[in-house]
Amino acid sequence: MKPEFAGDLNADGYSPLHLASANGDIETVKEFIRVDPSICRRQGKDGNTPLHAAVLRGKVDVIREMLENCEGCLEDVSFQKETALHLAVKSIQFGSLKVLLDWIRRKNLWEILNKKDEHGNTILHFAVWKKQRQVLDFLVESNPVALEVNAINNSGLTALDLLLIFPSEAGDREIHEKLQGAGALKAKDLATRIRIPSSSTRNTPVNDSSSSNLLQYFKFHAGRDSPSDVRSTLLVIAVLVATATYQVGITPPGGTWQDNKGHVAGTSILGYDSQWSYVLLVAFNSLGLNVSLYMIIILTSKFPLAMDLRVLLFSIYFTYNLAVIATSPQSAKIFSIVITSILPTAVPLIGNLVRKYEVFNRLSAMYHRGRRN
What is each CA distance from 115 to 110, 157, 193, in whole angstroms? Predict the structure, then answer.
């Protein structure tokens, strides 16, 4: 009765066709396409189309239906300029990728294989980045002539460069052999290469954008880096900070007095010599420890044995507090007790307030964009 409703987006940025596609409801999808084929290309959240939604969920029947009846939908890209092929590789949907490659082969649309996202990455870059050997086999065997194995992204890196940049893992040798068999080279071995200033010009200003592009490449990108990788990285950083700050707490710089001649044995020498320096050391070192422990608790909240882990972290926190209070000189002891007592409560509260403020800003920005549209 109201065909135009089919293209309306809900508060989450999805149209009815997006939802039907993601759920694999083929009959509903067919009815939408029958009423208005152009609705297949309606962009929703992150610029994804209904075809993208089906690809991300591996709904191969819906993908076939859309490819057959929605002309040009395979060329559509998201806001990050990602094609359906990019999304299939990133989400590790082999079924979706196989259907898309079969369609490309039938229609001779090989140029889509080499389309780049906003960072200049092709699907081959993503396959190598994610160490997806099966995807790499699909791509190389589909049409080795059409596939640009030496495409260079915005950071000046080829797919082979990405493989060699990071530490070797199981299966890297097979990926390396497969790439070399397809003619893959490093960027420096190509005619278009990143120029590195020689020793004679090293002291002169160099206007070379490749170094800044490389820095941009290693920054976090929400559409490229998986939550699992980000969590692992944050955990490593938090553990390193917790280790360093804990060590400073139990063995303060300068050591402790060994006798009771004019001072108390076992108290910090720095606390007697420079009380303000000691106070600042305790404050910021305790802040670092408490934030890192809080991060570990958040990042492991649904891990197996999470409760046991929290008991361990509490033991570390309690031991640290006792050590700091015990080594503090009498003049700074009250401050040490207060700061080590307040921070455990203050850190989670401040963290929650900051996150709520960021969420409020994002929702406010989305609301104003919706009003403008």
Answer: 10, 15, 20
Distance CA 28, CA 339 (A): 61
Spans in the chain with pLDDT lower than 50 = 192-210
Task: Return d(Cα 319, Cα 250) in angstroms, integer.
Answer: 8
Give the C-alpha separation, 4 to 243, whole Å.
Answer: 59
Domain ranges of the chain: 1-96, 109-190, 227-372
CATH number of 109-190: 1.25.40.20
Indicate the fold that domain 1-96 takes in CATH.
1.25.40
Question: With contact defined as beta carbons under 8 Å apart, do 179 and 151 qualify?
Answer: no
- For 164-213, write each residue's pLDDT tens digit: 876 566 667 778 877 777 777 877 777 544 444 444 434 434 444 445 55
pTM of the entire predicted model: 0.51
Same fold, 1-96 and 109-190: yes
Q: How far is CA 354 from CA 307, 343, 349, 360, in A?
A: 26, 16, 9, 10
Task: Report the C-alpha gap between 215 and 154 in whole angstroms.
Answer: 11
Per-residue pLDDT reduced to its tens digit, 73-102: 888 888 888 889 899 888 888 888 888 888
